[in-house]
Amino acid sequence: MPVDPCTALRRGLSLPHRAVRRLAQVGIFAKPDVSLEHQHLARRYVIRGVESGGAVEEIGRYVSFAGEQGEPLSYLHPIDVVGVNGLHAVVVAPILARVEMFRAGRTCELLITKHWLGPAEVGKRPTLESSLLFRGVHGYLEIDSGKKGRGINSPRLPVFYSRGGEPREIPEPFRVVVDAVTRGTVCIGCTHGHYLVAPKSAGLDGQSSESESPEEESLAHSGQSQKP
Fold first, then answer.
1. How would you classify the pairing of strands 77-78 and 107-117?
2. H or E segment at 220?
3. Residue 188 CB partners (closer than 8 Å, separation 6+)
4. Which pTM was predicted?
């Protein structure tokens, strides 16, 4: 039975059964599907997603979310799980852009989609609309194996081509989030999110503190700092 195109987009990348089995065998769990949820106190609907995934040396899968122009979003709350390469944080928003990547060795698949609330009749739930922003097939990711147990280095974005061999550019607004998701697909034993940021929180002095940008967070995980 044919699957509705919007439903297929909400589910994320369609991977071969062999790839799905291998991901399960090595313990990589990514949750690409998005859902429509109701906030009773605010009396509104939002879209829910979960940043998740990770990698082993041979294979990786990662999914994260951004605003409709690729901007970082604050997560609702982090998720602590037993093990690695699983769920990292929950995000809810009226509009979400999802970026999902699957990596097998140096070959990767990339899917960028947009999800938003559609029209709603009185007394009924709105529809959950989805559209395709970019689909990259059989991309090449230049990676270098690090020291044993130290992960993999991926300093560049993956490169994608058309069926005719012409380069296909990743949309400029989403290059930063694609970079973060790429790092997720090579993050061996991943235990942290790569793009969603912590929400502003009130400190002991009553003032709100700004969360780190994805770039600053990446440097922090690598033991570096941008501060003098």
1. unpaired
2. helix 214-221
3. 54, 55, 56, 57, 151, 152
4. 0.83
